[in-house]
Write a structure and sequence with these properties.
This protein has 409 residues and is an alpha/beta fold. It folds into 3 domains: 5-50; 98-200, Rossmann fold (3-Layer(aba) Sandwich); 203-343 and 373-405, Rossmann fold (3-Layer(aba) Sandwich). It is built from 11 helices and 15 strands. It has helices at residues 23-55, 110-122, 140-152, 169-177, 203-220, 238-254, 268-281, 294-307, 326-333, 348-361, 401-405, and strands at 5-7, 14-16, 98-104, 129-135, 157-160, 182-185, 197-200, 227-232, 257-263, 288-291, 318-323, 339-342, 367-370, 375-376, 396-397. The strands form 3 sheets. It has a 7-stranded mixed sheet, with helices on both faces. A 6-stranded parallel sheet has the order 4-3-5-6-7-13, with helices on both faces. It has a two-stranded antiparallel ribbon with strand order 1-2. Helix 5 (203-220) runs parallel beside helix 6 and helix 7 packs across helix 8. The protein is elongated and about 120 Å long. The N and C termini lie far apart (103 Å).
Length: 409
Amino acid sequence: MSDDALFCTKCGASVVKTEPKSRNTVFIGIITAVILIFICIAVIGARTLMKREKAGKYEPKEETAIEPIAPAADAPAAEAEPAAPAADEAAPAAERLVKVGFVQAGHESDWRTAQTKNFQDVFSVQNGYELFFVDSDSDQRANVEAVRSLIMQGMDYIVINPVAATGWDTVLTECQDAGIPVIVTDGRIEDSDKYAAYVGPDYHGEGEAAGVWLKSYAGSKGIYDINVLVVSDKVGSAAQIGRSDGFTEVANREGWTILDEQTGGGHEAGGQEVMESYCKSYEGQFNVVVCQNDEMAFGAMTAMDNAGVTYGPYGDVILISFGAGHYGLQDVMDGRISMDFECIPSAAAQVEELIKRNNDEGGLQYTEVYMDEAAYALYDQIRDDLYTDDGSYLIMKEPDYDTIENRAW
């Protein structure tokens, strides 16, 4: 290009240089130069934008705060923030969920279902717990193996609802060696003392209370020749052992006759089957039937209905049950069950209180916590001032609609 031309090295535009002819000519030249400069800038920007779009790096975005400039390589490094704990590391005690294993005996009744829900509600994540739940399906071997599995998973506490009262010492020793406190609920363990607490019903006291009430009530009716048939819970369960032993102690003391005791397995169908057999084998010989839970009482009532046997407060047979659930109390109100002894499944709050105490005090002395329970009957069946041998007062109530409707089991 000649010396009389201006040349832009970036965009390639050129302007011929001329000698100024007048003031207007100079002005026009200046304006032209400015325009060319802006054109150059626009072309450069467009080329840069095209390169970014092709590279996939350009994304329009809202204006943001400017990021701080990284320090030079030789500048002192900022203090590092604590790293988040790895998944297998223990978080600080105030933040870590307490791991509680709950080994349920089974799901054979509304009572069990209500107990399970009670533990799930109390030992929730919102309350600071991680609950590991196992249903043993009424199998003692599965019951024990579930505890072993929970030991391997590193529980902080294990709560056991035992299917049977024996066969526990070995696995409880393993819990002790692992430093895991065990709390037993709804059923005593008879062959080991390696657990921290028992929380639940006093089954022996319930059986004894049934006998104390029967003595008072039968005596008020002039009935002294007592002949009893028992439909028991699962053989070897804490409920069966406790209720049978407690009632039998009173029966032996009072000279009553227990004609027979067979298990209905805790189920309605089992209760009906056993009672059908009783109605044939002991026809006309019994005046008291003791069913060790409401479900079996329902089955026994069906069998007696079919056999033409009257029962309840106004029948020939005094019918005693345990549980006092929704339908059991309804049968009391309807004059079908003479007396229903309460057995409360909601023990989780008391278990949690022991766990909190252990956390605060760093250990637990062996503790027994019994549920506050009552017995339900119609008004004219209620006896006042009844006490068991250990001095416990028997609380008696008449069922009402509010109590029945609010029953969780």
